[in-house]
Amino acid sequence: MIASAPGKVIVFGEHSVVYGKHAVVSAINLRCYVKVKKSREVRITSSFGTTGYDFAGKHAYISHAIRRFSEVCEVGGVEVEVRSDIPPASGLGSSAAVTVATLGALNAEFNAGLGREEIFELARKVELDVQGIGSGTDPFVSTFGGSWVLPEKRRFHTDLEFEVIDSGETSVTAEMVRRVRELRDAYPDVILPVLDAMDAIAVRGAEALERNDIAEISRLFRMNQSLLRAIGVSTPEIDRIVARVEEAGYSAKITGAGGGGCVLTTGMGEMRISLSAEGVRVEDFEDWGSADN
Length: 293
Ligand code: PMV
Fold this sequence. Notes:
The protein is of the alpha+beta class. Helix content is about 40%, strand content about 25%. The strands form 2 sheets. Strands 1, 2, 3, 4, 5, 6, 7 and 12 form an 8-stranded mixed sheet that branches. Strands 9-10-8-11 form a 4-stranded antiparallel sheet.
């Protein structure tokens, strides 16, 4: 069976969400597809190569997903094949998407009858198995799809489309979160108001997205990017990308932890993305040949 799950973007609220402020996140139309077939042994194939169980390597998320799934349903062996539209390690949620798609495909192949809530719970455990920490946002958005205001988990819809530019630099979330915390501890009088301003931007941003108000989103992107720069998570390369996008009349901001990773833009990007994509689903094609990726 084949299942797929979407990647995600944080539209507003990265970092400030760590301090209980609002964030706006959305599933995107880039998906990860996983094909699963009962077999005598475990074999995992992706663009990284073919392995068996690979808990500490390139197939850590898939390996842990199989293990967590086998706690609720017996799996003798399984052949897993992955195809993904989502660039890895770029803040677009590729790890959660491959985890959720694997669980979705196992669920279908073994007729386990799990609902989305149960798939999310397993995916959340896998995130913790591999990363040790994690807010659970990525597996949540990848499982349920759609666009959400956090921490309330209020669903909303937007028809707006964005573009994404990969800075080519890797973004290490835990490291960036640690740096922001240090800055906040050293300069609370400066940083706390910045986090409050990010919160206000996220609240306005959700409203503007719902109204499909791209002019307002553009203004909010500029403000948010300046604040992300103020808390030290931009880089010279990201600043150059943002400047190029702004010179062309669009707006851009980091999406995710920063220090590298992807920039979300209102235009002039490398990849077009639409928001509010559907969550995990079983695909009705049996053959990769008919997949459109
Ligand atoms: O880089 P990503 O997509 O994992 O996003 C990190 C978002 C942060 O707010 C920086 C951290 C978090 O856990 O919310």
